Amino acid sequence: MSHNYLSGQIPSKLNRIAFGLTVAFAANYSAAVHAQSEAVQLEEVVVTATKRAQSIQDVPLAITALSSETLDRAGIVDITSLERVAPSFHLNTTDSNTGGVTLRVRGVGTSGNNIGFESSVGVFIDGIFVPRPGGALNDLLDVERIEILRGPQGTLFGRNTSAGALVIHTKRPDLNEFGYFGSLTGGNYDLFAGQAGINVPIIEGTLGMKIAASYRERDGFVDGAFGGDSYGRDREAIDLDLLWDMGDAGDLRIKASYAESQDECCLAVWHNDSDYIVNEVVPYVDPALGLGEGAGVPPSLVGRDALEDGKAVDDDFENPARGTRFSLEYNVETGIGDLTYLFGYSDGSALSDRQDYVQTDAYTTGATPQAKALNPERPYRSWNGTDTDNFSHEIRLRGLAFNDRLDWMVGAYYAEEDVDQRYTLTFLEQMQTAWSVGAFGQPEFNELNYVSGGRDAAGDFNAPNAQQSTESWSIFTHNVFSVTDKFDLTIGLRYVDESKDGSMSEQTTGQHNACHGSFENYQVTVPAYADNPGRLQAAVATNCWIFTAPFYDPDDPDSFYVPYVDNPATAAWVDLIPRPFDRKFEDDELVYTIKGSYIINEDTNVYAGFTHGFKSGGFNLDVSSASGGTDPRFDSEIIDAYEIGLKSIFWEGRALANVAVFYQDLEDFQVLEFDGIRRVTYNVPKAESWGVELESQAQFTESFGMNLGVTYVEAEYPDDCSTFDPNSSDFQSAILPLCGVELTNAPEWAAILGANYQSTVFNGGWDFFANASARYESERRTGTMPTERPNVAGLTTEAEVRAAVDAAVALRGDVEDSNTKVDLRLGLLHRDSNVSIELWGTNIFDERTKFSTFSIPLRGFSGDRARGQFVQEPRLYGLTVRKVF
């Protein structure tokens, strides 16, 4: 069985790779043939991808390196826009900038918004691992370069790098020269941003200090229904950086950072409403119910026009956050090698206050005005928030042996992280009325109130508390042996041990009138629903929604649910109720890499390698994860990756082409799905990613250069991603729709074409510069699941299961069409002062696209669900004045 949701696929994998390589060769050959012959050369790019300073052309690894000038000229202000300059990289956010960030490299990344899930792409700032990618979302401040390492990087970078690593290096203080830098930017959506920094050599040549700060404020580009907006920016940060050169005793760098934000993130734009609700229910809804136009969903705020116009149905999504970070780096030469010690500490807190996705007063999450107005005595603020706290130590020793033929490195790493998430979900006055209409198709009859025995749900709430403590340690070695003058062999090993303690509990005794009433009224409702017990169970599950229901603790003899557990009429209902848990997860793995690189000539080398990677499992920290006695843990993810590459500089140093062909096989791939009711985790037994990448540059004259990056990737779940045998102990019917489809947000093609021009004007005192780039991507899936869950109840054969999977109804809005986005920057640079004036625009043709698609909670039915989408930036433009140090 294969769902071919994306078109234009070439039949053979080998043909596709060959085609990509042909395109790569043709592009660079054409550049060489038609170029002028002026004596200009590309600048050497030095990276530290192997924890050693090397030319990017000498590293047997696929790397995208971005200098500070490249970032400035491309308008990259934070990591969310890196995909504009790196075709193999993708980042998306969902309903929270701090918690809903997903990074992908080569189509591989961990999906979903759940604090128990960790990224497949590790983020490092000045060598320190950032456990949560959202912690790196503030403006890039005083950055020297960014390295995007493609493919698993666990042997050297450790935790959560099974798909790749995003490595950010900031500029070190200058010990000899006083200087300063700054910028001011204004733009549409009332953008105002600024950065400033000062460098002071306190003791010349010995001790230096740098202070830098940033501020960004911008209105949102999605308008809420009641006057607010979303996807706005309100961020500020400050860094203090000290560098001490102690001579023979080494050098010490200490850096402290503080950042906070008041982002309003992120409203969903409705892709579609439920056809049945719109056509068969809404016309008959009694206006006296007060649900408003479209029973809370005005038709003008749904569909393509809503996306193009940036309109949302609801309002009031806020995501304030703050964080501190401290790092220490010590380097010293010893008698046996170069010693490096790194210490990192960070803590952060974030809030997430939001409404439901409709205009009715159905529910609210967090300390919103609606919740506080309904129950002003409740301490909502203390019941809500996510706090993180982590520290790490790393020590490395590197040296040379065997007449410098062996470059060896050994090291050890230790880290701890604590995560504490608290939240409340409160039912508002219209919950039962609105969901009797939207989820049960009742235009007049308040079915939910009937099931609860007349108990009103207004004010019902619960306050779950999810906690996780992680301890990770590893020892590693990474060695490069020069077998001959032209052939190097790299062998890296890392033993990783991770343990996690995860728990779910209630912070307080909530209010549960409608839920309690639904159980207590069962003697009335069970006979009334004798012909449709599934509908009754759905109604009980709605009054006892997983986020508001009281927990069931099987060890508590006084639990409210005790009389109902063994009652045949109600036992199945109890399985839908959240349960507390306190569990432990432990795993260890030996990750390793072996690579060979061969120098063909002084400008060209080839390499090939294999890497075995690992990402630890853990806990689904959604309140639903242990309901029915389900184990909330998920397994570790394993990746085996193969890569062959060529790196070449040609045309007398004026052009380069780097090509990589890769295949990545993933086992127990971690997937998180929000099904409109709860967040569910899966380990998909098989997934894969394979393809070809090209990165090329050419400097045609001193003034004019171009770059081309192309990625062709097939990131997919194979047809046999899981067993279809319903009699197998490994049978998981929920994930079978994934077999044969692409991974989420993994376009088959992504390409970036850029051009830059700079020349002297005004009698030599000024330079005019222009940068233009276009990014193309083919269509991509934006949801986790492509279809509804197949109905496999009672099926006994594989053939029956496959037929049920094929018959599952496709979820709407799953595919984002192919698109091209164009960026442009024009500027004047005053040579003597290093001050520039820059006019810029991103996505100048205003392509409106989405990050992800999901099912709106409790609106519509299986096969006819309302769907929402989190959207990407529209056209932005502005003016920047910049002073470079």
From TrEMBL:
UniProt main location, coarse: membrane
TonB-dependent receptor plug domain mapped to chain residues: 56-165
Q: How does it sit in the membrane?
A: Multi-pass membrane protein
What are the record's GO terms for cellular component?
cell outer membrane
Domain TonB-dependent receptor-like beta-barrel residue range list? 344-785
Keyword DNA-binding on entry: no
Q: Any idea what this protein is called?
A: TonB-dependent receptor
In which organism is this protein found? Pseudohalioglobus lutimaris
- Give the taxonomic lineage as stored in the record: Bacteria, Pseudomonadati, Pseudomonadota, Gammaproteobacteria, Cellvibrionales
